[in-house]
Specification:
homodimer; 508 residues; mainly alpha; Neurolysin, domain 3; 22 helices; globular
Chain lengths: 508, 508
Amino acid sequence: MSELFDQLKTKLDRSVALSAALALFEWDAETLAPEEAADHTGKVIGILSEDYFKSLINPEVKSLLGRLEQEENYAKLTLEQKATIRELRRTYKQLASIPSKEYADFCELANKSSSVWAKAKKNDDFTLFEEYLKRIVDYKKQFASYRVTESSEGNPNALYDVLLSDFEPSLSTKELDEFFELIKEKLVPIIDQVKQKQDEIDDSFNTRTYEIEKQRKFCDFISEYVGFDRKKGVIAESAHPFTTNFHNRDVRMTNHYDENNLISTIFSAIHESGHAIYEMQIRDDLTLSLIGGGASMAVHESQSRFYENMIGKTKAFWEPIFESLKETYSKQLADVSLDQFIRAINKSMPGYIRTDADELTYPIHILIRYELEKELFSDQITVHELPKAWKKKYKEYLGLQPKTDTLGVLQDIHWSSGDFGYFPSYAIGSAIAAQIYYFMSEHMDFDTLLRGGNLDQIKAYLGEHIHQYGMIYGMNELLFHMTGERFNPEYYVRYLTEKYTNLYGLDA
Amino acid sequence: MSELFDQLKTKLDRSVALSAALALFEWDAETLAPEEAADHTGKVIGILSEDYFKSLINPEVKSLLGRLEQEENYAKLTLEQKATIRELRRTYKQLASIPSKEYADFCELANKSSSVWAKAKKNDDFTLFEEYLKRIVDYKKQFASYRVTESSEGNPNALYDVLLSDFEPSLSTKELDEFFELIKEKLVPIIDQVKQKQDEIDDSFNTRTYEIEKQRKFCDFISEYVGFDRKKGVIAESAHPFTTNFHNRDVRMTNHYDENNLISTIFSAIHESGHAIYEMQIRDDLTLSLIGGGASMAVHESQSRFYENMIGKTKAFWEPIFESLKETYSKQLADVSLDQFIRAINKSMPGYIRTDADELTYPIHILIRYELEKELFSDQITVHELPKAWKKKYKEYLGLQPKTDTLGVLQDIHWSSGDFGYFPSYAIGSAIAAQIYYFMSEHMDFDTLLRGGNLDQIKAYLGEHIHQYGMIYGMNELLFHMTGERFNPEYYVRYLTEKYTNLYGLDA
């Protein structure tokens, strides 16, 4: 029996190796590669992507997959092997429908497109990027169309549902419409109340000038403080912070340092560290395999959000280390007390930039992207109309209209590489983090641990109940295993309501 | 006709892409990867290496190669296509004899071995590295043995000749024995004379403390000054300086900054820039192809040596920029005049470290490695005996005995990745540089160009006559095209004799 699986394993090892190479090229393009490299490197990436595709989608793997799915064979597989078969079937559904040449062309385009996006963002010129984005969207529509089933006939969101399922298999527009309705119903009233009290929290110190070199040093410190292991990872700089990895012993995160926004930089570091810690704690026997990543995008995001918000934004977390930050910036923070700092890092105020958003307004940024993506993939708007539509929605939901596209539609890298359907995972991730937070609170005293600078126990707990498993379990299975309950967005609403009611002294 | 070649081309494109991925992993391992990454990454590299191997060595490519070599097909090929066929045949001779699994295992070992070497060098502990090196040598013997022909029966250097031919096809131990005989006969007497006059040049300023950050900045400047294009390249840091590339628009060089050896750092920068300029000037239609690299290791080295020595060590070169160096280190260089500086950078004194060696003693460092490699591959010494043998030869030829292996047998990275037969290319490269120098002197006034800071013309000339061609021509063909003469080591001897006779006022 295991012989049949071993045959498959050898073939999957090749796809894992090619995927690591592609991840390295992507990391390199974002952090280091010279300006003129993109075209030629794009060719290399195109070829390797095609190879990657063919390493998974081919008659031999298909046949092995089919045989291993037969009941008499499947029953004998281990838990890990069954998860591998499940993931491979999912990949087959995603990719097998796409002609390999088409897929390679897309990957080459997506690679070039990222550097074009960076340029467009820098120059605040959407037109530079528009044609690339249009082609990316066309490819994604085409790819999704291969997988639309008969049962979704007449569903205007059929294409977008396909894209969503790539990131979180258990969620479609149906569940997400409900999720965002809840957000709108319960949170928008709170946002409105908080808006009236904007003057109550003074965070003006945050726009003072904070030397980049010191930010880098402090962020390195804080990443290690929460649990990022420098022996297993690298921290670099890129236009937009991200985390990637080649395996559990080589996990890489970036930050983007902003001289006049200390809080944003610090919490990006904690956020990406949360992602990185997840990858570092995946079991050795799972890493470098098809199930060697995080359970899903949303679960991944839950870990980064957990560290960023539930851990990093508490007073207990800062008690042992705030003095060190004040020493780093002794002039800039001379007049800032710990209490002031804590109130400032939790301040809620509608803004343009998703990655700078506070916890309360954050899901609205996602709501806007969710709606735009839904409209884009149901042909209600065109790529050309995106900048205008973007501004309109920000005005509608947050009462703000960004003056530039750099502060608007060009702010995020995701679309440039074709990641549509990804954004909702961010909000779902925050919601999972809240659910985990309430559950863990019953098992450990966060305040005491954080005050003692003892983050190891938290990391170990997450490692034991979530990280180590890689992709063995899906989101709901993992949550049920850990908390006895499936995904439940009520915790998220409860968390934000409690937190902001307290912070701003709102009427409960 | 071209249809048959196009079929081959598509297949070779895959091997080029895989080879770029392997080069990126190697770059990354040397410059950035975290401490614990090597084992897992080694697996990835093993798989990709096997893929690379199979992308070249397979029945389809073999059959296409055979058909394209048939006279009626071959005659119709372009110059570039013929060169591709020649290189592919060479690769077939090198690799086709090695079982693919064996090759993959070797690549995985070589990757790990580089980080083990770095550790051994750091800790001055050859025993850490010994077992790895032994296995590397065994693999290389095994690989070479597959290619030993009947005609070399009874030749004790048969294995080593095979390895040498991988780096410079036109040179074997026969030619190299002659070359090094000439070096010994003509140069050793000069070295002895210079030794008596060691006190005549004072370079004591060189061991003052030069802040690393300023070195980095000045070296970046000087690399760009000689022609390194930052839009097409990256400069980073590693244990041992090297240059690599993925194509002509992404060329990467490293340096190793030594706080107490300014001259070494600066000339490493110029040296690696020479390599990088070569790669950057290879034609767009050749890059990312089987003939997209430099003509040979020796020709590559000739370009780095040309920039380092014939250009970088002249007074004319430093006239426009010496003030900038003095400003960078205003305290450390306050008492150093341009003339003193020029004499110091050309000072000859036997030392332990190859990469720090002056031009005159440099070929002796190579001679020692050449003799040790020859002895290693003809079973006259074992890996275990290397440290001792190393010290003995340094005593014999340069009158010096290194106290540590870090200053001895562990100083160079090459053997850790199995690059035996590589070192002679360095000395041959210097000899080619001298030959090119005398020829170019007839066509341009170096002194005037350099005094005017006009290095573009030199770069353009080398681009036109050497760089652009990639591997279309071999070493002798290239030299003949350019100078009307094949490789001739007499220029090298003449160059060093003239230079050091003048510098030290020796009896001519």
